[in-house]
Specification:
binds 2-amino-2-deoxy-6-O-phosphono-alpha-D-glucopyranose, 3-stranded antiparallel beta sheet, alpha/beta, single chain
């Protein structure tokens, strides 16, 4: 693994050095991500995790569910987002994605598993706060720099809300559906402020195309590249592989 200081970003009074950890391959990225989650649960067995969907974190989930030494009984999870208007039983609903890749394979009590509800998005931030706040939030990044489903232009102060998906996002996510027409056009997502409220953030990024977007966000933070919020948080770890 080569660790390269990428840039310095100005965050009001403080200057934060953002480091991208360039790792040799996807398996290594997944193992390192799983280790960070393990470390968090070893630190506190009652940890509260913010969890992502998408192709990128699948390897991390595979590593975690294989590790039978982790005791998940007191861990709570809050998923970052969910499609709106999708049948919860649809294989590509994020609830189903998580069940398939993670929740069905670990002993987290059902009532400790949370997804934002499109009927009352505003309650999600309260629920997170009442649970004690997110200790570690893992996230991926869309090709247009979206995080969770916070699309370009999302307000930095946003909390959990319903959003219209950008054309690019619908196109990118259509690979999981039979046709592009099946992809929901709306989602409910943690807001940028919700994400920034986590104690620690782990960002997983793969592919040279996304690297360019990430580097731009680090060098020149911009509302139109939502992942730029990493410049506004003190504890962000970034793992990248080609
Ligand atoms: C979706 C999710 C995001 C995820 C993104 C990237 O849009 N809402 O949370 O980061 O996809 O997914 P992938 O890892 O498949 O590129």
């Amino acid at each position: 693994m080569i660790t390269t200081p990428e840039s310095q970003a100005s965050n009001g009074m403080t200057t934060i050095t953002r480091t991208i950890n360039y790792v040799k391959d996807y398996d290594t990225l997944s193992e390192m991500a799983a280790n960070i989650v393990r470390k968090e649960i070893n630190r506190s067995s009652t940890s509260i995790l913010g969890l992502p969907t998408g192709g990128t974190p699948i390897g991390m989930y595979e590593k975690l569910v294989k590790d039978k030494s982790i005791d998940w009984r007191r861990v709570k999870t809050f998923n970052l987002d969910e499609y709106v208007g999708i049948d919860p039983n649809h294989p590509e609903s994020y609830r189903n994605f998580m069940a398939r890749h993670f929740h069905n394979h670990v002993n987290i009590p059902k009532d400790y598993i949370h997804f934002p509800d499109p009927m009352c998005p505003e309650k999600y931030d309260d629920l997170i706060a009442h649970s004690g706040g997110i200790d570690l939030l893992v996230m991926g990044m869309g090709s247009n720099g979206h995080v969770a489903f916070n699309e370009p232009g999302t307000d930095m102060l946003s909390e959990t809300h319903i959003t219209d998906l950008k054309e690019q996002t619908i196109k990118d996510n259509s690979r999981f559906f039979n046709s592009i027409d099946e992809v929901p056009t709306q989602a409910v997502t943690m807001g940028l402020r919700t994400i920034l409220g986590a104690q620690k953030i782990l960002l997983l990024v793969t592919g040279k195309k996304k690297l360019k977007v990430l580097q731009k966000a680090i060098w020149k933070p911009d509302y139109n590249i939502p992942v730029s919020i990493i410049n506004n948080h003190r504890k962000v770890e970034i793992l990248y592989c080609d």
